[in-house]
Amino acid sequence: MTSYRQELEKYRDIDEDKILQELSAEELAQLDLELLEMDPENVMLPAGLRQRDQTHKSPTGPLDRAALLQHLEKQALEAGERDDLVPFTGEKRGKPFVPKAPAQEVPREEQVTLEPELEEALANATEAEMCDIAAILGMYTLMSNKQYYDALCSGTISNTEGINSVVKPDKYKPVPDEPPNPTDAQETLRRIRADDGALQDVNLNNIKDIPISTLKDICEAMKTNTHVRKLSLVATRSNDPVATAVAEMLMENKTLQSLNIESNFITSAGMMSIIKAMYKNSTLSELKVDNQCQRLGDTVEMEMATMLEQCPSVLRFGYHFTQQGPRARAASAITRNNELRECPGKPPHLWAGSLLTRSLWGAGGRAGARRQPGGLVLVRVELGVLVLHPLAGAVRDPAGAEDTRRGR
């Protein structure tokens, strides 16, 4: 039994051109008809393209589409109308429309009787006056909010067109855009280097074309400046190199009190350098670092809270914490710092019960009980500050011991 491949070997040396030359004209026409590719299932094609040509007649003439449409229209007009298969009997379906009965009158005992003067005033009131009366009586469902508040807030009749009037929007005065910051960065840098005594507030906010090198030079000049109290670099496209320069400036400058670097491109690494530099600064009381290009992270927020707890000079800190723990610690630290600044002469036991002391009661530190003239007090050392808590209702030591500290 021969295989399929061996059967194909017989047709390998066949000359197709020789076979076609030996076919007659009728056989060639039949071959062309068999080789036509038709799609009989496609109903979107005309009949002539879905099947083979089965007629041998010659066409009578070219297709005239306009003449064909005219013939069809004439034939349709001449044809008579056919009768309906189901004649109309005049039967009505559905329910006839019956109007609703008029509203019943209010019983006499429920009718409200007004004084003749009020009835006459209401009868002669205009639509605008009725709108104001409805607003005064609190019928806010009969009108829009704008009509209601206009009637209450204005001393005159404001809704002149009545309750059913179209509410028109208020016309607000156009507010022009704020002019650009006119500060000259190069001139400001020159005055900072010269330690100009008249220059105490440096505002470079929203100046987008300051080179990074100029910002670094400003921070370098601020190291030795003794007059500038406030430095603001908001939206100046500052990045981590500028943040590093700011950190170096904070470690050496002893006069700057307010620093604002919000809305910049400082990452967590640059912000960490600024926060760590705050440990060596004792004069800065306000620091704003919010709205950076990316999230600073939990590690930076924890370092911020630690810095605020260990730097009592910081009274205002501008940053939106994303975690509850650092947020609570920072709020307590800021509260403590402001209490220490506002009441520097008060004894410790008057501010020992503050929010910070209560919230950080379990934060560690040394604790003990000591006898005072007013009774026993609880002594704690928190963050380097001695905190005294009077013990209400404490029993005096019967042995008269002077010091009962424990947990040293």
TrEMBL record:
Region (Disordered): 86-110
Mitochondrion is among the record's keywords: no
Main location group: cytoplasm
One GO cellular component, as annotated: striated muscle thin filament
Record has Cytoplasm as a keyword: yes
GO molecular function: actin binding; tropomyosin binding
Annotated GO biological process: actin filament organization; muscle contraction; myofibril assembly; pointed-end actin filament capping
Pfam families according to UniProt: Tropomodulin
Top-rank taxon, per record: Eukaryota
Subcellular compartments: Cytoplasm, Cytoskeleton
TM stretches of this protein: none
Keywords (A to Z) from UniProt: Actin-binding, Cytoplasm, Cytoskeleton
Sequence similarity: Belongs to the tropomodulin family.
This protein's name: Tropomodulin 4
Organism: Nothoprocta perdicaria (Chilean tinamou)
Highest classification ranks of the organism: Eukaryota, Metazoa, Chordata, Craniata, Vertebrata
Gene behind this protein: TMOD4
